[in-house]
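queue> pop job 88
queue> type: inverse folding (structure -> sequence)
queue> payload:
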């Protein structure tokens, strides 16, 4: 039988996705910026736009209330954080984690499952309130709303996940339950401002023909299939190396979805009952 790629297996064994482990925030504090600045924790000026460090991406911020945490401070609290931003007066946070598993296609559902599983390992009573398509990236991205308690403080997490071939981006905004309603529109704005270069976003595994396939034609036996947008055909030499009985193999890479066709012939004059064949 064909050995299908399993995104879930690669997600759970080959990436460094970690639950956000910062202390749950505790609400409004108008003097918080001055304390953080004095401690050398944040940059001195509000952040307008931010670039990724470990991966190419950009974020835009909706007002002058957000500050970038200094990298040393962010890494100390969460070594996986590529960037960490804070709105001190609301004690609200946005963390960006950017990952890459070279040569491993990462499906969005499996990656989102892995993110949630890691979050639950850090917050055992975590409740998933909603999981939906991310309107900014409806095919490649997901939004997840969660709430729970950490260190006896009620918190709310608002997460966004995005996968592009062997890269994945995970944004999480969090605040105290009492504070989140006042900052969630800003978190959504920050998340939706994410820009990833087209070359990264549309990257394909090297085993796929780069042109999307709409009409699939049989190689061994005449037949045809029609594929909707977003499907690609695996290269014939790769398919034959993996399983010589496969005639065609098409893939929807961002969903790790596959259609395989095995086309066979029986000796002339032999009738093959469909039930026995099935």
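queue> result:
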């Amino acid at each position: 039988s064909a050995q299908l790629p399993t995104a879930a297996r690669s997600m759970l064994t080959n990436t460094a996705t970690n639950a956000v482990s910062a202390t749950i925030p505790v609400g409004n504090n108008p003097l918080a910026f001055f304390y953080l600045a004095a401690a050398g924790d944040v940059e001195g000026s509000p952040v307008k736009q931010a670039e990724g460090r470990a991966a190419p991406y950009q974020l835009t911020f909706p007002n002058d209330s957000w500050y970038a945490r200094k990298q040393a401070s962010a890494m100390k609290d969460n070594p996986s954080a590529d960037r960490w931003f804070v709105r001190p007066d609301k004690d609200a946070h946005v963390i960006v984690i950017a990952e890459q598993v070279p040569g491993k296609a990462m499906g969005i559902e499996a990656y989102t499952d892995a993110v949630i599983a890691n979050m639950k390992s850090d917050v055992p009573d975590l409740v998933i309130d909603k999981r939906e398509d991310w309107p900014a990236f409806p095919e490649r991205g997901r939004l997840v709303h969660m709430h729970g308690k950490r260190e006896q403080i009620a918190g709310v997490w608002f997460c966004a996940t995005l996968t592009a071939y062997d890269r994945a981006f995970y944004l999480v905004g969090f605040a105290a339950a009492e504070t989140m309603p006042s900052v969630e529109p800003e978190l959504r704005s920050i998340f939706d401002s994410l820009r990833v270069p087209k070359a990264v976003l549309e990257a394909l595994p090297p085993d796929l023909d780069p042109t999307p396939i709409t009409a699939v034609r049989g190689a061994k036996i005449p037949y045809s299939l029609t594929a909707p947008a977003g499907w690609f055909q695996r290269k014939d030499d790769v398919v034959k190396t993996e399983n010589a009985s496969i005639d065609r193999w098409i893939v929807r890479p961002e969903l790790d979805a596959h259609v395989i066709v095995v086309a066979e012939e029986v000796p002339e004059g032999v009738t093959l009952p469909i039930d026995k064949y099935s």
